[in-house]
Specification:
single chain, about 375 residues, alpha/beta, 7-stranded mixed β-sheet, globular
Length: about 375
């Protein structure tokens, strides 16, 4: 009897769902069949296949509900409304994003993020790596603080903020002053300028430039004169996607040197060579920051017209992408490696590369969470 009741209840549920489905599908079809949401920076749900098994166990209903939610008309407006409702309910942040002053969307930096076993191990790997190569190579480590550390006055009053400056300084003490580049003080000295994007987690080209002046001073590189060129004023970055809100678009600038520079750029051992560090087609996409070096690549090899024999290996995350163009006049060869995607031996690369310099450049938040830093010594 219980089995019969359960079967009837299941059939009634399915019948009701199908009736609702037939009505709601009208809205789904009207909304089109977009596969990717640039606003949310994710792929949308696809229409699930219908069979008796997943219909009776509820899986089909669940998947179709997700599909319809992703196909709703005016979806982006509903997403924005949800964000405003969460803010009105006095939530401190939305998806880990603080709504700061002057329309800054700032990633929350929790203490726990910096106190993990992975973070501790990464620090050990970095120290070992520097020790292995500092005798024969000019090696520098640059850890870049997050927006919240430099632009503290932009944070809302209730925001928690981990002391990244102290954390970076502790790492630098272990590595040694000769092999580190402190950019914190320089960035703080210019904190009222446009150093970080309002809608993205990266620093701007101006922020990278100020950091480069510190690196150039450390390594004896001449600092060229540049003209700034605005390439877009319609950039909405990762923080905008996480917060589900577009308030004020960012501007992206590139710096063009007064002195003519020539480059030959090879991506991922391709036979194709490019003559620019900028991928201008990225300006037509959501991720406009990928104009710099074409976004994330395992390996980028750059040959320049610099009149010297200095060769540098840059081991980095994406914060280096808008930094590297400033290095062109200082090195005849620049090899760029992203450990997240590069799986060849770093030791072999250094042994065969004939590098005079090594730069390890990471955002400190990315560095502590990266699962690939072990490749420096493995």
């Amino acid at each position: 009897m219980k089995k019969l009741k359960g079967s009837i209840r299941s059939k009634v549920t399915v019948t009701i769902f199908l009736l609702i489905l037939s009505g709601m599908s009208v809205f789904g079809f009207a909304a089109g069949d977009e596969r990717y949401s640039e606003k949310e920076n994710r792929y949308l749900a696809i229409k699930p296949d219908l069979d008796s098994g997943n219909l009776l166990n509820g899986k089909y209903q669940e998947d179709y509900e997700t599909y319809l939610a992703d196909k709703t008309i005016f979806r982006n407006k509903w997403i924005e409304l949800k964000t405003y409702i969460e803010l009105a309910s006095l939530k401190k942040d939305v998806n880990g994003v603080y709504f700061g002053k002057d329309n800054y969307l700032i990633a929350r930096q929790d203490k726990d993020k910096f106190e993990t076993e992975n973070a501790d191990k990464n620090c050990e790997y970095l120290e070992e790596f520097v020790d292995n190569y500092k005798k024969n190579t000019d090696i520098c480590v640059m850890l870049v603080p997050n927006t919240s550390e430099i632009l503290k006055k932009k944070l809302p009053k209730y925001a928690y903020n981990f002391n990244e400056t102290r954390y970076i300084n502790d790492i630098y003490k272990e590595i040694g002053e000769d092999n580190t580049v402190d950019v914190n003080q320089m960035l703080k000295a210019h904190k009222d300028e446009y150093l970080y994007y309002k809608t993205d987690h990266h620093w701007t080209t101006l922020g990278a430039y100020y950091a480069f002046t510190e690196y150039a001073d450390k390594t004896g590189i001449n600092i060229e004169k540049y003209m700034t060129k605005l390439v877009t004023d319609k950039f909405y970055g990762t923080m905008s996607s996480k917060a589900n809100l577009e308030i004020e678009a960012d501007k992206v600038y590139i710096y063009e040197p007064d002195k003519e520079e020539e480059v030959s750029v090879r991506y991922n051992n391709s036979t194709e060579l490019k003559d620019s560090l900028y991928e201008m087609s990225a300006l037509d996409k959501k991720d406009k920051y990928s104009i710099f070096l074409g976004g994330n690549n395992p390996l980028v090899q750059i040959t320049t017209n610099a009149e010297n024999d200095r060769k540098v290996l840059v081991i980095k995350d994406s914060f280096a992408h808008c930094f590297i163009p400033f290095m062109i006049s200082g090195f005849s060869k620049i090899d760029v490696v992203d450990l997240r995607y590069y799986n060849e031996s770093i030791r072999k690369m250094i042994e065969e590369g004939g590098y005079t310099d090594i730069l390890v450049l990471y955002n400190v938040g990315n560095f502590v969470e990266d699962k690939n830093i072990y490749k420096l010594v493995n």
